[in-house]
Amino acid sequence: AATCPRQVTTTHGDVAPEPDGSAGLLQVALQGTSHRAVGTVQGSTPVLRELNGATFKQPAPLAGPLLVYRAKASEPSTLPTLVGLLGKAGIQLQSYHSSGTVAGEQWSVVGLSATLSDLSELKPRVLEVFPLQL
């Protein structure tokens, strides 16, 4: 079953400037969801710093096709399953960022060379998954 990429709306201002003063707070609204995402802009690229209270140690760039998923931190087979799906589809994994654990769950943001449309094998291993096209 194909999954339609969600639309992303961003707004930004200077309410939480970076220490060097080069970036401000970025609020990201994912259409059709109630997720709260917070980030900044590095250069000209928006980056995700927090998703629903889970903080990313390394900000995740919000560019190109992405796959965002939430899984139990104790579920070791999620990433190997995703890598296998990408191999079958001929899609390259270009970046991987995971959040800290909150209530035993962890968010991951995966940069891809193309949109992965068939998420059926991944869905049993995650609590939530959605593609983003930026």
From TrEMBL:
Compositional bias per record (Polar residues), positions renumbered to this chain: 1-12
Region (Disordered): 1-21
Name used for this protein in its record: SERA dehydrogenase
